[in-house]
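Provenance and format

Records in this collection were gathered into a single text stream. Each protein contributes a sequence line and a token line. The two records reproduced below are adjacent in the stream.
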Amino acid sequence: MAHKSSRRLRSPTTEAPAARYTLMALAFLFLTLFLLLPLVAVFIEAFRKGTAEFLAAFGDPDTLAAIRLTLLVAVIAVPLNLVFGVAAAWAIAKFEFKGKAFLTTLIDLPFSVSPVISGLVYVLLFGAGSVLGPWLKSHGIEILFAVPGIVLATIFVTFPFVARELIPLMQEQGTGDEEAALSLGASGWQTFWYVTLPNIKWGLLYGVLLCNARAMGEFGAVSVVSGHIRGLTNTMPLHVEILYNEYNFVAAFAVASLLAALALVTLIVKTALELHYGAEIAAGRKH
């Protein structure tokens, strides 16, 4: 009787060892074939002709210009998304207002819209046939096929990352700490800097990290608005495509390996932040 009871109370997620090992083997096989091997292939192709050829690829002025532009776009887009993400998360998590659900939906819009469509939106807004295009041109303002267009497209595709990371965290924390600080005489800015910001620091860093990774690796939206002008509007992903289409495989994979290395660094930092971030959420739930 006891034996039947123990079988009946067994966890539904408990599987036989053979089933567990089979699922683990399939998962590792999938990751090896579709993630690990392509990543290794990038580095192998980059160093196929030796270290000298690899380093020579980064001496090309167009490659250096692509690297500088990629860093410039990230330096502009990430801080702007940080400010927007904190403000949006603060409003959604801490206040009740009309249109709150609509704002939350808008934040998720870039996740559901193709990046290419995002780029086309800016073409429709600032192109020669648009309402704003002729006016901007008459005043000497260049948006499309210039740095501002690339920055705008990058901001659009990356702005959900910080907000989406902070909203559930701030909702979990509630408003108790802020209300206590205000009741003790703290101003709004003091409450934000000394109460809210320390409580969300790991989530904020995690969101910024993901935002930066996407900003540096974005291809679709940037490809539409950049014009592919070598040395001027090509970011690193676009430059890789051009080099590969020109059969300059060593240079293409060398630049691609730099992006892959940045992705690996991002993964390592992301894992470290997850450990701190997860521990902080667990500690908050205990209290």
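Adjacent record:
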Amino acid sequence: MKTMIKLSHIHKVFGDLHVLKDVNLEVGEGEKLVIIGPSGSGKSTTVRCMNFLEVPTSGKVFINGTEVTPKNRLKVIRENTSMVFQSFNLYPHLDVMHNLTLAPVKIHHKSEAEARELARHYLQVVGLENKANAYPAALSGGQQQRIAIARALCQQSKIMLFDEPTSALDPETIQEVLDVMVKLAEESNITMVVVTHEMGFARKVADRVVFMEDGRIIEEGTPDELFDHPKSERVKQFLGKILNH
């Protein structure tokens, strides 16, 4: 399997805080990787280092075989990755269609007609084709996040990164976003890395689950291995609390 993401000996330090401590991780083409762990464990920083939103203090990041550097990062990241954030980051002054077509036209040099066709297709994928002319303020949180996923899909990236995409949503709308992500995972060959607290989603979608704590990867395995037969006491303890065993 081709390696799409490789983190090699990644350290990240913010002032006195050593957030990532020698993180080594590879993600294969089409793999669905889910990162779990307690708050403050370094999950989000790990995924943000993958696309150089956070520049590692030391170590190397490779995307689709190319080492990412401060010089080439815009080109490499734009060509290969898209990201869905906790807060939806939609442009409030643009309607949904313009939110979706902006990057394909400006960054990927598609024609307006091509970009609109793409946008209509991915609005259908996320079940919101009737919202093309709506503005973000008129949408619920769950709808805004589904639009954010459609916007990421419009970039037609090989890699999609999700940083706790449901954490800003109320419980009623979490499921509608997870349903879209499950569909995406099952029907596409996109490489997905998802940071989440949603264990049911992790079990259903992941090819591999990584557990992080204190800036380190403590354990990794298939959902069955990690959820049903965790090796480390810390993972057992964490899952015991979360899954109410």
